[in-house]
Amino acid sequence: MPTLRVVPLRRPWLWSSSALFVALLAWLAVAIWRNPNIQHAVIWQFQFAPAILQGLRTTVVLALLAAVIGLGLGIVLAVMRLSDSRVLRLGSGLYVWLLRGTPLLVQILVWGNFALLFATIGPFSTNAVLTPFVASVIALGLNEAAYMAEIVRAGILAVDRGQHEAALALGMSRALALRRIVLPQALRVIIPPAGNQFISLLKATSLVSVIAGGDLLTAAQNISSANLHTIELMLVATFWYLAITSVSSLGQHAIERRLGRAAAQTHAAR
Amino acid sequence: MPRAEPTHAAARRVMVDAQDVHKRYGRDEVLKGISLQVPAGEVLCLIGPSGSGKSTLLRCINHLEKIQAGRIEVDGEPIGYRQRGDVLYELPEREVCRQRAHIGMVFQRFNLFAHLTVMQNIVEAPLHVKREPKAQAQQRALALLERVGLADKAGAYPGHLSGGQQQRVAIARALAMQPKLMLFDEPTSALDPELVDEVLAVMRGLADDGMTMIVVTHEMAFARDAGDRVAFMDGGVIVESGPPGELLARPRHERTRAFLSRLIDEAKAA
Question: How far is B15 from B73, CA to CA, in rounded Å?
Answer without folding.
Answer: 8
